[in-house]
Amino acid sequence: MNEIKCTKVRFYSHRDEAAFFAFAEGIPAVRKIVGDADSIVLVLRPKVSENSLRELIALLLRYKVDMRALAALENEKNSSWFRDPGAFWYKKVFSSPDRKKTRNQTAPTPSVSQ
């Protein structure tokens, strides 16, 4: 089972939080959403369509969630467009954890369970 763990998502109002959940619930690949301490876990269906993957990219980008977990969703069908180095999401999805370090802080390691 695929899961995307969204850690420390920042919401600026109650409606902003509601918009996140409405957006996530509207993505066909999202089977359910569960809370986990300071995280929101998106539990995905076994097959993630191109449309759903594009929506997941948009959701995570909009809410500034670490997008590297999406790399695990790459497959033969989507690799040609998903791994395009010219795509706006490419570096955010396929960068190594070391590239996300700031001076005195290390980015949390994203997790996708299968």
Keywords:
globular, alpha+beta, 114 residues, three-stranded antiparallel sheet
Structure description:
The protein has 114 residues and is α+β, with helices and mostly antiparallel strands. The chain has one domain. Helices cover 30% and strands 16% of the residues. It is built from four helices and three strands; from the N terminus they run E-H-E-E-H-H-H. The protein has helices at 14-25, 50-62, 79-82, 90-94, and strands at residues 3-7, 30-36, 39-44. The protein has a three-stranded antiparallel sheet with strand order 1-3-2, covered by helices on one side. The protein starts with a strand and ends in a 20-residue tail after the last helix. The relative contact order is 0.20. Mean pLDDT is 88; it is low at 102-107.
Record the SSE blueprint.
Elements: E1 3-7, H1 14-25, E2 30-36, E3 39-44, H2 50-62, H3 79-82, H4 90-94
Antiparallel strand pairs: 1-3, 2-3
Provide the β-strand percentage band: 15-25%
The largest pleated sheet is described as: 3 strands, antiparallel
Strand order of the largest sheet: 1-3-2
Task: Note the quaternary state here.
Answer: single chain
Overall shape: it is: globular
Mean pLDDT: 88
Order of SSEs: EHEEHHH
Helix percent band: 25-40%
Rg calculated over all Cα atoms: 14 Å
